[in-house]
Write a structure and sequence with these properties.
alpha/beta; two-stranded antiparallel sheet; 13% strand; 2 domains; 275 residues; globular; single chain; 10 strands; six-stranded parallel β-sheet
Length: 275
Amino acid sequence: MRVPVLTYHGVNVAGDAYVGNDHVALAVDLRLISDAGLRIVPLSWVVQQLLGLAARDLDHCVALTCDDGSDYDYFDLDYPPHGRQRSFFNTLLDFRRERGFAAQPDLHLTSFVIASPAARREMDQRCLFGRDALRSNWWRSAQTSGLMSIENHSWDHNHPELSGNGPYGMPRGSFLDVNNHARADAEITAAARYIDGVIAPQRCSLFCYPFSHVSDYLRSDYLPNHQAEHGMLAAFGDGATPITFDSDRWNLPRYICGYHWKSPDELNDLLHAGT
């Protein structure tokens, strides 16, 4: 198993070109992946394979994820000053209409979302034009669509734009400060419970570190030793290598659009090296 995991951000919109617009990039990349003879599979399949919970053929496969859970993941919305953006979800539908179901029968995108309603409202005001574009009203529809799933990106991202300290006096701006049980419960377990309440009867089981900040406490203590509390099967950072059977389940690697690749040619090279 050598599965590259590609990551996009719905709020990465700085124009209408591939570089700087993850919506444009995803539309191009879906075609590139298919033309390269690679198969897109759900991220959960990769984790199940890693943990010995399934035995699928994942040769020449790729998984897709997106972070933060903005409404741009699911709805077509204006992004000032760059106009209407085709959502990630609708981009998947466009690809399926264009190429047909058989081109990518397991087409899927995993969206890691921020749980706290208060944090999402404040981040929307301070970071996203105050248009109420960090909602949860689409999570269940995405989860039941068969094309997307909703997973855990923490309670509040410990985002630097949030007012006051984080849980249990945690300074804002770094997830490395989630370094004890109380803070970890507040950021991961509380988030899982909230997300599960929205997408019930489905449950989230995958965690993605905000900022790709992988604290040693979370990776080596809280996540492996307190699964009965948080319910996570694996966690993701940004290690920029394919997932293999040797990968650390509590720090699984991903490639970030705009950071680890900036053009279709770079992605093509990455995919052929990775698979």
